[in-house]
Design brief:
Length: 457
């Protein structure tokens, strides 16, 4: 699709709709001439060039990429109207789109019933899940793995509940034996299983966590903010090594969070939380003297902690799902390409003389380190930092990676030969979340190998 054409169409469609309400005089105080706008916009365009090229496959760093053009056009069209999905009074059309898109997400996870909504972010979505967990299991804490997103301990603090970190195995997955022992103590009311950790892309065995938790009468929340859409690959042809069991178990858990602004091709401002039991809506009971007056139907603000939310985010997701639905043949193809890229790069890294694979990737995140010569934690840490810097600042063929700090213990569990001359090391981390990475991996590998050779001193 031609983005410029459809951005124009979006503006025209909204203007045509507006024209149906009759003409009126615009106010002089808001008027900006093209002559005044041009230099200001020029300044913005120039400042935006200070970004890293998230769109390019040579950007293989953090979880970042531009939204799909369909999402951009959907967002822009709705943003020109600027509906607020807090209430049907503020966004009747986009609230309906939100309910439809959220139902598609629930279907993707196999939830038979659900109560859910979009949020501004994965952090807020997880906060809501933990808030409901606190209400259903008052006085008891929340357990999550040491590799869980850092916001879980922060949100436990916000909610005034105890957060307990559980150790992980040599693949970065929650230690189910340790969890079992912790739950036997009775302090914990809820376990957070992470389906795709942010650092390594490791998948907690949700099915095993669920079995253990149910034995102890404990609630299970799945944080699939990053990994959730990979459920589309579970059990599909060509996904050897991806165990479908954790993904299938999500349907039996109490809540799940997924971030369409990560793997759902959306711009920022789009997380989602889904609850398996619609009755948890009672924990959101509140009265708003300003809203909820046009309809007795459910207003999304009645089941969310946030008040104002962009209706445009729902429009963008709804439109994207019309074209690339959350199905194996739709969005699943995008995720499959990124995962194939990660597996292909892992194979090259395993055979490399100058780089080594930290651990086999499960999803689309690859972690690796410079590995020739002196294999000690401090040497690897310094070389990783040099490679990161040299890659970003290269005039010719720049490459953009990220680093991950790992403890020496964790490092030596995977690579016992690494000398422990420090407490932790930065290693290199690449999220291969663009399908274009698949064709680009040989170039990426050759480029990073060259940087690793130059970083050796
Ligand atoms: C990104 C992420 C979060 C936080 O989500 P935001 O949208 O960045 O607020 C939480 N959990 C996991 C596993 C994540 O990857």
């Amino acid at each position: 699709m031609d983005l410029e054409r459809w951005l124009g169409e979006a503006a025209r469609a909204v203007r045509d709709w507006e024209a149906g309400f009759g003409g009126y005089a615009g106010h002089a105080c808001l008027q900006v001439s093209d002559e005044r706008f041009a230099p200001a916009f020029g300044e913005l365009a120039s400042r935006l060039t200070g970004n890293y090229p998230f769109f390019h496959p040579a950007y293989a760093g953090q979880m970042l990429k531009p939204p799909h053009p369909a999402a951009v056009v959907g967002y822009l069209a709705a943003m020109l109207i600027n509906p607020n999905n807090h209430a049907l009074d503020g966004g009747p059309a986009t609230a309906a789109m939100e309910k439809e898109a959220v139902s598609q997400l629930a279907g993707m996870f196999g939830l038979r019933e659900h109560l859910g909504h979009l949020t501004t972010s994965g952090t807020i979505a997880n906060l809501e899940a933990l808030y409901v967990a606190r209400e259903t299991h008052p006085g008891r804490g929340v357990a999550y793995s040491a590799e869980a997103h850092y916001t879980h301990s922060r949100m436990c603090h916000v909610l005034g509940i105890e957060g307990v970190s559980v150790g992980t195995d040599e693949a970065g997955r929650i230690d189910v034996g340790e969890l079992d022992a912790l739950l036997a103590g009775g302090r914990i009311g809820t376990v957070v299983a992470t389906a795709g950790t942010t650092g390594l892309g490791a998948i907690d065995p949700v099915h095993e966590v669920l079995a253990v938790a149910r034995r102890h009468g404990v609630r299970v929340h799945v944080d699939a903010a990053y990994g959730g859409f990979f459920t589309l690959l579970a059990g599909q042809a060509g996904t050897a090594g991806l165990d479908p069991l954790p993904w299938r178990a999500i349907a039996g858990c109490d809540s799940v969070v997924v971030d369409p602004h990560k793997h759902g091709l959306q711009p920022y401002g789009c997380g989602a939380v889904l609850f398996a039991d619609p009755a948890v809506g009672r924990f959101y009971l509140h009265d708003s003297p300003y809203t909820y007056f046009t309809s007795a139907d459910l207003h999304l603000g009645e089941i969310s902690l946030e008040c104002s939310r962009a209706g445009a985010a729902a429009a963008a997701l709804w439109l994207t799902f019309r074209l690339l639905p959350p199905s194996p043949d739709g969005l699943g193809q995008v995720l499959a390409a990124g995962r194939r890229a990660a597996l292909a790069w892992a194979a090259l890294l395993t055979d490399s003389a100058s780089l080594d694979l930290y651990q086999p990737p499960e999803l689309d995140i690859v972690c690796y380190f410079p590995a020739d010569g002196n294999r000690s934690v401090t040497v690897i840490d310094a070389a990783s930092a040099r490679i990161l810097q040299a890659g970003m600042s290269a005039a010719d063929e720049p490459v953009f990676l990220s680093t991950l700090r790992v403890s020496t213990d964790a490092f030596r569990r995977r690579h016992p030969d690494i000398a422990a001359d420090g407490a932790a090391a930065r290693i290199l981390r690449s999220v291969l979340m663009k399908p274009e990475h698949e064709a680009f991996v040989p170039r990426l590998h050759a480029r990073v190998e060259r940087l690793a050779q130059q970083a050796r001193q």
